[in-house]
Amino acid sequence: MKRMLMSIVLVGSVFLAAFWAIPSQAQSSMSGGEIVNPERVIPFAKNVEHALAERGARVAIVSRVGRDPDRMPSGIEYTHVALWVYSDIQTEDGRTVRGYAIHNLYQLPDDPGKSDLVQDFPVEFFGNVFELRAGVIVPTADLQDRLLQVLNSSTYEALHQPDYSLVANPFGSDYQNCTNFVLSVLMAAIYETDNRDLIDANIEAYFEPQTVRLGPLQRAFGPLFVRGVETSDHSGAIRTSTFGSLSRFMRAYKLSDTDFTITERGVLEQAALAN
After folding, report:
1. Which residues contact 238 (CB under 8 A, 6 or more apart)?
2. Residue 118's CB: how many other CB atoms inside 10 A?
3. C-alpha span between 53 and 23 (Å, rounded)
4. Which tens digit of pLDDT belongs to each residue from 34-88?
5. pLDDT at position 23, please?
6. Residue 163: pLDDT over 80
7. Is the pLDDT of residue 145 over 80?
8. What contacts 81, CB < 8 A, 6 or more positions away?
9. Lowest-confidence pick of 13-17, 37-41, 221-225
10. N or C: the chain end with fewer CB closer than 10 Å?
11. Average pLDDT, stretch 205-230?
12. In what order do the strands lie in the sheet with 59-65?
């Protein structure tokens, strides 16, 4: 029996290591770290900024492909979601320029089970991704105004839950991932409230999460072998918020003006967005 149990654990660990392989800097909801291939990253980041500016976006929701989608749980392709805000930015030489500052929930690099709120910039956001592709949602003008109010208030930080899980349940409060955080900020803006109970109640009432299909070994052994993955907050099917589910929610309730995908080849307007 002991030998059989050890064999099961060994098989589980090998299977999980292959399926949930995490590259350097993790790149799900971790900060970009080193900028790889700056000759490609810098023009791409500028193209994303230009696409947002051309559409008059003062606040946008932008996602990136940080890990190989084939190594991610089924149902998750975009691995990090953040709020991009058109802002006054101080350069190192003291000048003030206009551009997009990015408001993120990032995993801590030395403790992937925890997260922090960090502000960075487009080049860092795409600095070490698996693929230069971004999913973009531009909220309605009214919702952008409300989002700016939340971002400039104490509500923004109050909505942060530092215990992180890649597949955090958006209907629970034990863990949070980057998309759950953005969803909470959205609900706070929509209802112009800092009441966490009201925010959570409206998420449960109106938001349809993405079902993440994990095999028995992944679900049972994932938390043991993959830091930053917890499944204990799910009593049944594992459901979490993803970029795709966020896009569908905002379309359904007419909360977005447009959504699109940007690749190195250009902008794909109103594309069928992935998760």
Report:
1. 167, 169, 211, 212, 213, 214, 219, 231
2. 15
3. 32
4. 788 999 999 999 999 999 999 999 999 999 999 887 777 666 789 999 999 999 9
5. 35
6. yes
7. yes
8. 61, 62, 63, 178, 179, 182, 243, 246
9. 13-17
10. N
11. 67
12. 111-120, 96-108, 80-90, 59-65, 131-139, 256-263, 266-269
The distance between the two most distant Cα atoms of the chain, rounded to a whole number of Å, is 69
Using DSSP's 3-state secondary structure scheme, residue 254 falls into coil
The tokens for 33 are 């770290």
Q: 122: Cβ–Cβ under 8 A, 6 or more apart, which residues? A: 45, 46, 48, 49, 84, 99, 100, 102
Q: Is 251 left (phi over 0), alpha (psi -120 to 50) or beta?
A: alpha
Q: Alpha-carbon distance 41 to 4, whole Å?
A: 48
**Token pair recorded at residue 238:** 């594992």
Query: Which residue's entry shows tokens 């940080």?
Result: 66
Tokens encoding 227: 């830091």
Between the CA of residue 135 and those of 52, 131, 157, 170, 271, what are the distances in Å?
A: 12, 12, 25, 20, 9
For strands 210-211 and 266-269, give the pairing. Answer: unpaired
Confidence band for 215, pLDDT divided at 50, 70 and 90? low
Handedness of CA 208, 131, 30, 46 (dihedral sign): negative
Length of the chain: 275
pLDDT number for residue 12: 38
Helices (H), the chain: 2-19, 38-54, 122-125, 141-151, 155-158, 178-190, 196-206, 216-225, 243-252
